[in-house]
Amino acid sequence: MRAVIPNAITAAALCSGLTGIRFAIVGDWEKALYAIVLAGVLDGIDGRIARLLKAQSRFGAELDSLADSLSFGMAPALVLFLWSLQDLPRFGWFAALGFAICCALRLARFNAQIDTEEQPHKSAGFLTGVPAPVGAGLAFLPMFFWLASGEDLFRDELLVAGWTVLIAVLMISNLATLSWASIRPGKDIRLPAIALVGMLFAALLTEPWWTLALICVIYLALMPVGVIRYAKVKRQRKAAAARRERDPLDATG
Predict the structure, then answer these.
(1) Does the structure show a pLDDT above 80 at 23?
(2) CB 69 within 8 A of CB 139
(3) Confidence tier at 226 by pLDDT (50, 70, 90)
(4) Can you tell me the distance from the alpha carbon of 223 to that of 9, in angstroms, rounded to the nearest whole number?
(5) Could you list the residue ranges that cross the membrane (predicted)?
(6) What's 199-230 look like in SS3?
(7) Using alpha carbons only, what angle is made at residue 117 by residues 112 and 122, rounded to the nearest 5 degrees?
(8) Domains along the chain with CATH numbers
(9) Percent of the chain with pLDDT strictly greater than 70
(10) CB neighbours of residue 9 within 10 Å
């Protein structure tokens, strides 16, 4: 049962992502987004539950990657195409394809590096590029604004195509992005952080689309922070390497 539970959650995330496509086919955009957001929530807890139950396996990792490719690559690409990109002949479909392919490439790169010891970003507590679930959420930012405001500007096929391509590139980029491991709130801000999470949950219940759009905007605003912090780590590593070359007996590095 320890092995079944996390894999069952992964399968549920896969079904949720595919159900989002079904809702998009009939034009129920809100339910389509809810389904893919739910897939993201399930994807965020399956790995943690596997570690908690000590049930990590290579099978689970491969299943998780396949589920992510469908839920956060193919599903968002099809939803965006049915919602807006189909109004842009040829290039709209290529934008959707590019997003799905870049998501698959990102996941393939992640799997290929699982057993790699030298991972500069990971060893410093960062991620490489935008994670697949986050990329799906960012790709839906025009939809969030459209549902929140009702403005048809956010459904413009040229805008959506350009935005989709940009997020696809960010997913396969080598940019250092912040991860949960790099977020360590001090003791003096833990209670405000708990209160903020509670207010965020209430906002998701009352104004889900504005709240999701705000979360995406905040993530985009924090991306330069990750790049700057990793650049600082690289400088520190180079300085330590230079000290070791000057004094090989220096064990402090």
Answers:
(1) yes
(2) no
(3) confident
(4) 29
(5) 91-112, 124-146, 158-177, 189-206, 212-231
(6) HHHHHHHHCHHHHHHHHHHHHHHHHHHHHHHH
(7) 80
(8) 4-246 (1.20.120.1760)
(9) 91
(10) 22
Instruction: Report which DSSP code applies to 127.
Output: E
| Interatomic CA distance for residues 62 and 83, integer angstroms | 30
* Structure-block tokens of residue 51: 């570690």
Confirm whether pTM is higher than 0.85: yes
> CA 76, CA 74: separation in Å to the nearest integer?
6
Distance separating alpha carbons of residues 218 and 97, to the nearest angstrom: 27
- The 3-state DSSP class for residue 79 equals helix
Q: Are 138 and 70 in contact (CB under 8 A)?
A: no
Q: Is residue 15 classed exposed, middle or buried when 0-12, 13-18 and 19+ CB atoms within 10 A define those classes?
A: middle
Kindly tell me the sign of the dihedral angle through the C-alpha atoms of 53, 54, 55, 57: positive
Question: ∠ CA(151), CA(152), CA(155), 5° rounding?
Answer: 120
Residue type, 43: D
pLDDT value at 251 more than 60 = no
At 106 the three-state DSSP class reads helix
pLDDT tens by residue, 141-189? 999 999 999 999 999 999 999 999 999 999 999 888 888 766 666 677 7
Burial class (CB in 10 A: 0-12, 13-18, 19+), 72: buried
Q: How many CB atoms lie within 10 A of CB 151?
A: 10
| Structure tokens belonging to residue 26 | 């009939």
The residue-averaged pLDDT of 205-216 equals 94
